[in-house]
Automatic annotation (TrEMBL):
Pfam families: PCMT (PF01135). NCBIfam families: pimt, PRK00312.1. Its EC number is 2.1.1.77. InterPro entries: PCMT (IPR000682), SAM-dependent_MTases_sf (IPR029063). PANTHER family: PROTEIN-L-ISOASPARTATE O-METHYLTRANSFERASE, PROTEIN-L-ISOASPARTATE(D-ASPARTATE) O-METHYLTRANSFERASE. It comes from Robiginitalea biformata (strain ATCC BAA-864 / DSM 15991 / KCTC 12146 / HTCC2501). Catalyzes the methyl esterification of L-isoaspartyl residues in peptides and proteins that result from spontaneous decomposition of normal L-aspartyl and L-asparaginyl residues. It plays a role in the repair and/or degradation of damaged proteins. This is Protein-L-isoaspartate O-methyltransferase. HAMAP family: PIMT.
Length: 231
């Protein structure tokens, strides 16, 4: 019996050495070393990042790096954000389960999947068609049923589903898109990188108070791929 156990252990170790990396373990370590060690404290956000298999959202050749502290290319000149940035922006939205959330910039759909672990319904818009199509397929394959993907210019938001309790923009805009501000519910929160084209932008948290008044707060300097517009 003992030798059977050691054989099984040996095989396990060998598989670990020559097979694919131990993704679940790498993911737990990512949460500890990149999120908890910084300022991500919200239990539900940490749980979501412990759960969503980030390696399945990046191109195969980058899988081994999926849990490193960095953005990665996802094709079409776009990137999946650094895990910490995903967690930070998600935490800033102060979500509750019944919230309806709009994301602009689906990309790999990793951020959308993280949101879908936290709230009932997620709407996400991607301007680059092949990315949007791949994202919709991926989310379906992974069994996410509470995310709707649309291909188009997110500047206009999703008027038929508005208002939204939270809006997250994962591309850097030069200014706040007015339609998104209009589609934010009273009491709603929006996070968006804003600033001049190229270079460092300001990660802005915008809150719409019950009386409709807007409160703008600057969270940190960030770099994001640009928010583009349909011609
Ligand atoms: N949230 C993504 C990160 C994607 S990078 C993830 O988790 O992987 C930003 C994405 O925003 C890119 O895919 C880019 O094509 C998209 N984008 C840029 N401008 C846009 C716009 N006006 N409407 C919708 N998507 C846009």
């Amino acid at each position: 019996m003992k030798s059977l156990i050691s054989l099984a252990l040996c095989l396990g170790v060998l598989k670990g050495l020559w097979g694919q990396p131990d993704f679940p373990q790498l993911r737990q370590r990512m949460v500890r070393e990149q999120l908890q060690s910084r300022d991500i404290v919200e239990g539900s956000v940490l749980r979501a990042l412990r759960k969503v298999p980030r390696h399945l959202f990046v191109p195969e050749k980058y899988r081994a790096e999926a849990y490193s502290d960095t953005p990665l290319p996802i094709g079409e000149g776009q990137t999946i954000s650094q895990p910490y940035m995903v967690a930070f922006m998600t935490q800033a939205l102060r979500l509750k389960g019944s919230d309806k959330v709009l994301e602009i910039g689906t990309g790999s759909s990793y951020q959308a999947a993280v949101l879908a672990e936290l709230v009932d319904s997620v709407y996400t818009i991607e301007i680059v068609e092949p990315l949007g199509e791949a994202a919709a397929k991926r989310l379906q394959a992974l069994g996410y049923e509470n995310i709707q993907v649309r291909i188009g210019d997110g500047y206009h938001g999703w008027p038929r589903q508005a208002p939204f309790d939270a809006i997250i923009v994962t591309a850097g805009a030069e200014a706040l898109p007015q339609p998104l501000v209009d589609q934010l519910a009273e009491g709603g929160r929006m996070v968006i990188p804003v600033g001049p084209h190229q270079g460092v932008r300001d990660l802005v948290l915008l809150r719409k108070k019950r009386n409709g008044k807007l409160v703008r707060e600057s969270l940190m300097p960030v770099r994001f791929v640009p928010f583009t517009r349909e011609n």
